[in-house]
Amino acid sequence: MKIKWSIYSLIIAAFTFLAGCSNKLLVLDPKGPQARTQADVIMISIWTMAFIVLVVIALFVFMIYKYRASKQSVDYEPPHIEGSTWVELLCVGIPVLIVAYLSVISVQSNYKVEARPEGYEHREPLIIYAFSSNWKWHFSYPKENIETVNYLYIPTGRPLEFKLYSYGPITSFWIPQLGGQKYAMADMVTTLHLAADVPGEYMGRNANFSGKGFAENTFNVKAVTEAEFGKWIDEVRNTAEPLQEDKFEQLLKPGHVGQYTFTGTHLPFRPAPEGEHHHQTLNLQQDSDHHE
User: Fold this and answer.
1) By three-state DSSP, how is residue 208 classified?
2) Which of 44, 195, 234, 260 could form a disulfide with 149 if both were Cys (CB 3.0 to 4.6 A apart)?
3) Count of CB atoms within 10 A of residue 210's CB?
């Protein structure tokens, strides 16, 4: 009777907990091909683990019921058993097969998300230099000659190629509904390929702890059609102020700010740490720390 009521209580608690999860997990609500690949892998892993847990629980219940002590006579003595080769093979072989299966899926998905999104291979990507500073995100559109702070405008139906780095500690660039996170570091540029299939507003953030301002180290993402993206570019070019070096230096200082939009980018006077400028960002950061 106690076991029965324990099971009932567990079921009621589970339903109560799940009832509170009214909002979808962002990683399981993908809006782009990269995020969809990762969501599929997550669900395959969840269902595989759920199947294993259910099988183990079923076998456990079967064993304790079939071989319970009350079923045997008082003078029962268990036989001497050396072992079973088949049981040992099953106990070792099945976990090996499960791990191998999940490993193959994980490796295949890693290759997919590191490459240009499927279906976008022959389209020209929109290149965006995205970097963090304590505790802000900056986005440079070199071809469009635009730079934004703490918000990102992107077109749908076009591959996005982010060049990630950091003016400060290591951070992690993450838009859950478009793809997985990738680190941004001070002395190198990492590349992240994403794409948005449908217009919408998405949340982006730093997924790596980077000090006291980490919790607010977020940015807004707005995905629009190609036509709307073109209109936004024209509007910025006609209305935004140019990005001056002194303003850029001010934005690099630790602290939180709102959203900014500029014409021009920081790249001419503060190039990204790639090619001949590979060590520049790290050296500038060390000089800044030394003066402070």
Assistant:
1) coil
2) 260
3) 19
Cβ(213)–Cβ(254) under 8 Å?
yes
Q: What is the CATH number of domain 126-291?
A: 2.60.40.420
Asked if residues 37 and 113 have their Cβ atoms less than 8 Å apart, the reply is yes
Greatest Cα pair distance, the chain, in angstroms, is 95
At 42, the amino acid letter reads I
Return the minimum-mean-pLDDT range out of 32-46, 73-87, 125-139: 73-87
Cβ neighbors of 107 (< 8 A, separation 6 or more) are none
**Cα atoms found within 13 Å of the Cα of residue 68, Cβ hemisphere only:** 8
Q: Where are the alpha helices (DSSP H) in the chain?
A: 2-19, 33-66, 85-114, 226-239, 245-252, 280-291
Does the pLDDT of residue 96 top 90, yes or no? yes
The pLDDT of 268-289, averaged and rounded, is: 66
Which SS3 state, helix, strand or coil, does residue 248 take? helix
Query: Which residues make Cβ contacts (< 8 Å) with residue 45, sequence separation at least 6?
Result: 102
Q: pLDDT tens across 131-182, in order?
A: 999 999 999 999 999 999 999 999 999 999 999 999 989 999 999 999 999 9
Closest CA to 121 of 29, 225, 61, 193: 193
Position 55 confidence tier, pLDDT thresholds 50, 70, 90: very high
SS3 letters for 46-77? HHHHHHHHHHHHHHHHHHHHHCCHHHCCCCCC
The pLDDT tens digits of the residues spanning 184-209 come to 999 899 999 999 999 999 999 999 99
Long-range contacts, stretch 42-46, CB < 8 angstroms, 24+ apart = 44/102, 44/105, 45/102
Bin 157: left if φ > 0, else alpha if -120 < ψ < 50, else beta.
left
